[in-house]
Design goal:
The structure holds two protein chains of two kinds. By secondary structure, chain A is of the alpha/beta class. In chain A, about 40% of the residues lie in helices and about 25% in strands. Chain A is built from eight helices and ten strands. Chain B has a single domain, classed as fumarase (Alpha-Beta Barrel). Classes of the chains: A alpha/beta, B alpha/beta.
Chain lengths: ~280, ~190
């Protein structure tokens, strides 16, 4: 059987992760770029349009000079889909990803924003450890997605255990309340990840995973997609606008992910992302 | 409207002339500090000790830049969320700090201190760190080098673009800007 296993070397994973970390921080993904260009056309506030233009100029400078889009180059969240027929040679998978983050943040002159202990708060000096989620999948491919997450928007994210009776109205109210509290702090126009269902931690994870989706893409279930559209409209009526200085475009898109839950539970998590959703994926 | 040009150090007269919503280009030396440096400064004040930097008539930019590549002055250097410094800002404003640059809401305690002592809060565009870095001509560490990106730096800036978010008269661009564009005029719409 061993002959059928595919192998990937530790170094290959290190190099791929390092490259993804750097590209995510230097190059605004096409979907985000397109969403911002569309927002610049739709925004009614002249100051808001000016800010979006600055954000696009900023992205061009970042890509040209290999300088981060934002100085908060984040704590790195990594989603790994690991084919069960795959074997890593030369070291372990988590170790390879951690080493890749260390290499990318050092080599790329990215800011080291991780403290080794949340209470003592000493900087680890190399932006490790990342936060890694592994999912075993059929096959022999290895999919690595990195999502460097900045504090401005993460700090304004929230989770609430609703009562099932609160239902759809409660979900909408909570999402809107979270955006209202965040206002300019989270660097709008935001991408809003919403996780509904599961358990407490599952809802939070769904909200995070929702941010990996192409910005503005809709959920496959038409009912969920309609809710995404409705929330997008509601959020864009709040008036915050680009940078929160007033305008129509407060969100570039609401992405909802759902999961079965308990008869007595309705967990909802809202994970906000700033205008620069930094997500990069590689499949090995 | 054309942006107003100001130079540092920031005089009380210059602060008095600024109104929420005005675009401003700052030239001169500004200080940087964020969470960890603020904590250290306030601990010194609580002990009755002198600060390692003179903040009188200065502007503090809330920023933790990314490291420069060889040959660059600074990496990306956009504003961080000002609200995290709300715990510390009123004490510094009382000591003569005249300006702050950041992004996001300030607390009532901070805006009240600004009105009482005459200070201004500027918003820079969050997430435009690469663009803003181009207006920074020189960088020097003034204190706490061990804090890395959280050290107190002196930035020499030229035409650094900001907008007055809160002036010393209670004017609040975040509130006014939102009021102008909010479509749901519910009770919380301008909270």
């Amino acid at each position: 059987m061993i002959g059928f296993l595919r192998t990937i070397d530790f170094r290959t994973i290190v190099e791929t992760t390092s490259r993804l970390c750097q590209e995510a921080n230097f190059e605004l993904e096409h979907d985000v770029h397109a969403a911002l260009e569309l927002a610049a056309k739709q925004e009614e506030s002249p100051a808001g349009r000016d800010i979006i233009t600055q954000l696009l100029d900023n992205a061009a400078i970042a890509a040209r000079d290999r300088i981060p889009i934002c100085q908060d180059t984040g704590i790195v969240v990594v989603f790994v889909e690991c084919g069960q027929d795959l074997r890593i040679t030369g070291g372990d998978l988590a170790g390879a990803i951690t080493e890749g983050v260390r290499d990318g943040y050092t080599r790329g002159y990215l800011r080291k924003s991780v403290v080794g202990d949340p209470i003592r708060r000493q900087n680890t000096g190399d932006n490790t450890p990342p936060i890694i989620y592994f999912k075993p999948v059929p096959g022999s491919a290895l999919k690595i997605s990195v999502l460097p997450k900045g504090a401005g928007s993460e700090n304004m994210s929230a989770l609430r255990m609703l009562k099932p009776a609160q239902g759809l109205a409660g979900i909408k109210e909570f999402v809107l309340e979270t955006v209202e509290k965040a206002g300019p702090n989270a660097c709008p126009p935001l991408t809003v990840g919403v996780g509904i269902g599961g358990t407490m931690e599952k809802a939070a994870l769904l909200a995070k995973e929702a941010l990996l989706r192409e910005v503005g893409a809709r959920h496959g279930d038409p009912e969920i997609a309609a809710l995404e559209d409705e929330l997008t409209v509601m959020i864009n009526r709040t008036g915050f606008g680009p940078a929160g200085l007033g305008g129509r475009i407060t969100t570039l898109g609401v992405h909802i992910e759902v999961y079965p839950t308990h008869i007595a539970m309705l967990p909802v998590a809202v994970n906000l992302n700033c205008h620069a959703v930094r997500h990069k994926t590689a499949i090995l | 409207m054309e942006p107003v040009r100001i130079t540092t150090p920031l005089t009380g007269e210059a602060v008095a002339g600024l109104r929420a919503g005005q675009r401003v280009l700052i030239t001169g030396r500004i200080l940087t500090a964020r969470d960890a440096a603020h904590k250290k400064l306030i601990e010194l004040l609580d002990q009755g000790a002198d600060l390692p930097v003179d903040i009188t008539n200065q502007i503090i930019y809330y920023v933790g830049p990314s490291p420069p590549r060889p040959g660059q002055v600074v990496g990306a250097a956009g504003p961080t969320t000002a609200g995290r410094m709300d715990f510390y800002a009123p004490q510094l404003i009382a000591l003569g700090l005249k300006g702050m640059i950041g992004k996001g809401f300030r607390s009532t305690a901070v805006t009240e201190a600004m009105q009482k002592h005459g200070a201004v809060y500027f918003a820079a565009v969050g997430g435009a760190g690469a663009l803003l870095a181009q207006r920074i001509r020189a960088v020097r560490v003034l204190a706490y080098p061990e804090l890395g990106p959280e050290a107190i730096y002196e930035f020499e800036v030229e035409d650094f673009p900001v907008i007055v978010a809160n002036d010393m008269y209670g004017g609040d661009l975040y509130r006014e800007g939102r009021r102008q564009y909010a479509l749901d005029k519910g009770e919380d719409a301008y909270a």
